[in-house]
Structures are given as C-alpha cells and as structure tokens.
C-alpha cells in the first residue's frame, strides 16, 4: 500500500476553490514535490495531509489510515512539518527545540540526547558548538537546518515541507538542497515538499505534481514532465 493516498480532495474558501479534485499516491520513501505558481493551492493541499486544513470533500490516508479518524494533535506528532518561517521556539536552545516532539512522545532522555546529537552532526551543526545556542544566534540557513532536525527527530514516517529553503539566499539554498538530498533520514522517509522553484523540484522529486489553479495539471516523474514556457 502507498504511504500516502489522496483521493478527490477539494477545498473551497467561500466561493473560491483553492484545491479541486486532486488525487495522488506517494510510495514509502519517495519524495513528491507539489509545484506551481503562488496561489495555485500548494500550501492548502499540503495542510490537508496533516489536518491543519480540513477538506470539503475527498479523503487522505496515511499508511492506510484515514487521517480524519485521528485526532489532529496526535496525527501531527507523527508527521514532521517544516515551513518557510521556521518557527523555532525562541527561548529554547537548539537541542531543546529538536527534542520537543520526542519528549511529547515520551522517549527516554538518553535516546533523545543521542538522536539530537546525531541529527545536529548530520546537518553540519556540531552539537558541541550549537546545542546550547538560541535560535536568534543562528543564521537563516542554520535555523532552517534546526527546523529540519526538529521535524526528523522522532523519525516520522512522513515529512511535509512547505518551501523549506524559501527564506535562504541562493547559495545557501543550493548547498542545503544538496545536503538534504543525501540525508539518510530523509531517504527512508516519505516526503511531500512544496515549492514554486522548478530547479528545486527537478533536483529533489521522485514525482512532481504540477498544480494549476487548484487542479492537477501533470503528475509524474521529472523526466516525463512537459514544462511549457
Ligand atoms: P500556494 O501555496 O500555492 O501559494 P495557497 O494554498 O496558499 O497557494 O492558496 C491557494 C488559494 O487559496 C489562494 O488564492 C489563496 O489566496 C487562497 N487561500 C489560502 N488560504 C486561505 C484562507 N485561509 N482563506 C481564504 N483564502 C485562502
Ligand atoms: P504561502 O507563503 O504559502 O503563499 P500565504 O502567505 O499565502 O502562504 O498564507 C499565509 C497564511 O494566510 C496561511 O495561513 C493561509 O491559509 C492564509 N491565507 C492565505 N491567503 C488567504 C486569503 N486570501 N484569505 C485569508 N487567509 C489567507
């Protein structure tokens, strides 16, 4: 069975249809990129996967389970989520930010500490130097890496990323994107990533879903996509 299955999702805001009759499947371990211009419905679609937005019709299944049968808070603990404005807790250290979800899930402190150190190392934030720092002491790229570490800390089966590199300068963006592709944690996780950047989509996607005014325009692996100018 697919890790994520979406059937006929529709979401309206008043008379405006933001997402219309969208269906797709993502196999475990694959990365689906939602691509399209600003306002085409990418964020709305992504947020219906973790119930930050409730659809008007259609269903979402994660590992075969209807998300609407799961309490939203519990559901979200099981799904990593990163947005452009990272939203790190400003009065918590880097290590405390990364530990939030594993703590909520009741992981043992020793396991949390080991996992945090491993992820920070992997994301080029050596814990000796960064674990005790506060988010305001970090660059934008470093904060984004902490956000990613936080989303991955509890080894979620699914990670949702909304323009995760959007706030970064082009050079940092390109280098984080390369690291990101190589992360073993991400390779074993099912990822849905939102971007309006075609290069980024081609670099990261197993499948690209091209959205146009809320509808699926194309869906397939990057090499099969026809991009009209
Ligand atoms: P994207 O992520 O592709 O930029 P969004 O999903 O944010 O697109 O928005 C899709 C459309 O729905 C846009 O026209 C946007 O203005 C509208 N929209 C998004 N969120 C809301 C909301 N909470 N209330 C009303 N309209 C919204
Ligand atoms: P994005 O960066 O994905 O385009 P936006 O800046 O469009 O996100 O949206 C930020 C927030 O505002 C979201 O919570 C979204 O649901 C809400 N929003 C977006 N468009 C509208 C709208 N037309 N009316 C009301 N809320 C909106």
Automatic annotation (TrEMBL):
- ABC transporter domain residues: 4-229
- Tell me the keywords, alphabetical order: ATP-binding, Nucleotide-binding, Transport
Query: Which Gene Ontology MF annotations are present?
Result: ATP binding; ATP hydrolysis activity
Report the record's Gene Ontology biological process terms: quaternary ammonium group transport
Please report which protein family the annotation says this sequence is part of.
Belongs to the ABC transporter superfamily.
Question: What is the protein name stated in its UniProt record?
Answer: Osmoprotectant transport system ATP-binding protein
Task: Give the shown range, full length included.
Answer: 5 to 233 of 340
């Amino acid at each position: 069975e697919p890790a994520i299955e979406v059937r006929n999702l529709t979401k309206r805001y008043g008379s405006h249809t933001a997402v219309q009759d969208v269906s797709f499947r993502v196999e475990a371990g694959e990365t689906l990129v939602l691509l399209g211009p600003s306002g085409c419905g990418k964020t709305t679609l992504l947020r219906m996967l973790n119930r930050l937005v409730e659809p008007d019709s259609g269903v979402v299944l994660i590992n075969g389970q209807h998300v609407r049968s799961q309490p939203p808070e519990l559901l979200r603990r099981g799904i990593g989520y990163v947005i452009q404005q990272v939203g790190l807790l400003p009065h918590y250290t880097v290590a405390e930010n990364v530990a939030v979800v594993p703590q909520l899930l009741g992981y043992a402190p020793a396991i949390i500490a080991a996992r945090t150190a491993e992820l920070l190392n992997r994301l080029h934030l050596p814990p000796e130097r960064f674990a005790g720092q506060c988010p305001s002491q970090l660059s934008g790229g470093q904060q984004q890496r902490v956000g990613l570490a936080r989303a991955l800390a509890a080894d979620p089966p699914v990670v949702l990323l909304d323009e995760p590199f959007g706030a970064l300068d082009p050079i940092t963006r390109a280098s984080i994107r390369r690291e990101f592709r190589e992360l073993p944690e991400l390779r074993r996780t099912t990822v849905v990533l939102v971007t309006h950047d075609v290069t980024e989509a081609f670099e990261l996607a197993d499948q690209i879903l091209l959205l146009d005014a809320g509808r699926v325009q194309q869906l397939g692996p990057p090499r099969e996509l026809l991009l009209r100018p």
